[in-house]
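Lecture 7 notes: from sequence to structure.
We start with the chain below.
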Amino acid sequence: MILDETDKRILRLLQQDAHCKLKDIANKINLSLTPVHDRVKRLEKEGIIEKYVTLLNKKKMGKHLTVYCQVTLVKQNYDISEVFNQAIMNMPEVVECNFISGNFDYLLKIVLEDMESYHHFHQKKLSILPEVSLINSFFIISEVKNTTVLPL
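Predicted structure tokens for the same chain:
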């Protein structure tokens, strides 16, 4: 699908505030309410707008530690990857999991309360998976940029 500039303006506003009312969007882009409504519905139907979410403040929720883990599997095949994928889907601490190319197989983003919580996660959940061969962990010292806004 090709997005025109009006679609992009609507998407920029919704990425900044998904709670933004269609009436407010219409006013900001100088378009009447009905075409804005129709465009948003089309963008939803076509899957450009996938879902609406509420973003929480990690620190205010007591999640003070973000860890990136490079995970290498014991073997690279479909069955082992699928078992690992299913295990990760059941770990709420893992907020992102990406199968990647390079020197390791997966990159995980894990959000937890503190180092003790990570130690427990590492020892009792991640490293006990029989599919896992190697884990390298990187701890975030300071978050420079964290956005959900895609460039349009």
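Points to note: The first strand starts at residue 65 and ends at 73. The chain has a mean pLDDT of 97.
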